[in-house]
Amino acid sequence: MKSRCKKHLLLILALLWLPGIVAAQGIDVSKYQGKVNWRKVAKSKKVSFVYIRATEGTSIRDDYYKANVDSARKAGLYVGSYHVYSSKTTASQQFNNFKSVVKKNKQDLIPVLDIEGYHSGRLNMERVDKLLSLMENYYGVKPMIYTSEKVYTEHFQGKKYRSYHIFVAKYKGSPSIRYTLWQHSKTGRVSGISGDVDLNKFHPKHSIYDLYMPSLRKKKSQEADTTAAKSDSTLTKKPQDSISSKK
Fold this sequence. Notes:
Elements: H1 2-17, E1 25-29, H2 38-43, E2 49-56, E3 60-61, H3 65-74, E4 78-84, H4 91-101, E5 112-114, H5 125-139, E6 144-148, H6 149-155, E7 166-169, E8 181-188, E9 197-202, H7 214-236, H8 239-245
Parallel strand pairs: 1-2, 2-4, 4-5, 5-6, 6-7, 7-8
Antiparallel strand pairs: 1-9, 2-3, 8-9
């Protein structure tokens, strides 16, 4: 029992020391940020992850999406993608648009369904649920829901949505709803980006690890197991082992 407890503690410590786990801060971007110098963004050390606009509705595709994804990942940032919900088209049409642009193997973070505040009071929840389900089935993980406090209160407080991560936009005061990620500013400044950019931070009880895609989560867990095993081996090594290894 003591041995298992020690290994569990080592695993936790290893996870906490993995890059990007502690105090990660993020941004989200679209074509409106123009051409981003992702090397400068990463070098600034203020940002460790980014959500990038991929699609909207049935046919809109962000012109900068592919370049942003490739360059941001190359610079060492964790990358996720988001789709802007439209009330004018079906869930299947919107999902097909998103799927055609967002490749599974280029996603570090779970996808996001962006439901803007102007949908307040008039969401077709059957359509929203269908789109969430299609995204989950294809990407193998529940998407995160981005929205305002008002829309959340009106439509997403039910028990069926408790298993979804919430990404809330609020620029004055702290959120009054549960959330995983908080977009706390839309006028942030980051080296490598001209003009304003959205800034995001985690709830104290959450970290970027909660948003990892299943493949990345598995990889990081394996790295943590390896680190924990090495630490355990070092801690349990007998004195004579160290002496004999020097002969």
